[in-house]
Amino acid sequence: MDVYLPIANMSVNGLWIVALGGLTGILSGLFGVGGGFLTTPLLIFVGVPPTVAAASASTQVTGASVTGVIAHNARGGVDYRMGAVMIAGGVIGSGIGSLLFRFFRSIGQIDVVISMLYVVLLGSIGMLMAKESIELLRGGGSKQVARRRHHPLVASLPMRWRFYKSGLYISPLAPLLVGVVVGILTMLMGVGGGFILVPAMLYILGMSANVVVGTSLFNILFVTMATTMMHSLTTKAVDIVLVFLLLVGSVTGAQIGSQIAVKAKPEMLRLILAAIVLVIAFRMFLGLFYRPDEIYTLSPL
């Protein structure tokens, strides 16, 4: 079933796009990531311009996050106060990311920037997650995780607040700055930011593991809504047909993922996610060194 994508100016298999949406929805419910880190590269692999892939994936991530938040909220797994602070930072970051997106596109380098960001961020985070997961599965890292606290720099920030569900007494400036970084990445890369946000919440903020996934999805939901509006008003790169096909699969997939997450072993899930992240990073790295037969991109009018 071929479907024409007007903004991307190409035809794709609609069933394949729906299946991709379902896969990213499952990842959303399982790991607390929006799934955009997978959606955007795979769309690029099939020929969708990176700019269109990034803008459209951020819209699809919103739909996947809605159902994920509902599922995790039902078991008390969302810290709304922490999430609200990070959302404020995310909106600020989206504005900064919009300016950067337009600048790199104006000089004809946005496609290269998107690909390089994926290689660097996915590669480094994938290795970190894989290392810790292997240690936990071997039984060597369990004591370290039990003693995990927030980063010393976080402890030095002024104006401390209590975040009861996360079990923290820290400055709101820390989650605000984390939100700003995630907002910039969401705008540039079309990701929900979960693959950055989840490790940051665990290793930098020191949040309780039982609220990390739900709070991450709550943040992703609103940040991707903001970035979608930014893209629609500034870059004009959102392909509504592509978004619809992705949403059809992702809404169902997120519910499935949330159910699996309750029963599965967290260390094994984290190792699987790390493996997926590293494979995609390697594929994006290879893509920097070859030229496809046909090139699709967006250029300023």
From TrEMBL:
Membrane topology per record: Multi-pass membrane protein
Presence of the UniProt keyword rRNA-binding in the record: no
GO cellular component terms given for this protein: plasma membrane
InterPro entries: TM_pro_TauE-like (IPR002781), TSUP/Inactive_protease-like (IPR051598)
Keywords of this entry: Cell membrane, Membrane, Transmembrane, Transmembrane helix
One Pfam family linked to the record: TauE
Localization: Cell membrane; Membrane
TM segment ranges: 12-32, 52-71, 83-104, 110-130, 168-196, 202-225, 237-256, 268-290
Top-level taxon in the UniProt lineage: Bacteria
Family: Belongs to the 4-toluene sulfonate uptake permease (TSUP) (TC 2.A.102) family.
Name of the protein this chain belongs to: Probable membrane transporter protein
Upper taxonomic lineage: Bacteria, Pseudomonadati, Pseudomonadota, Alphaproteobacteria, Sphingomonadales
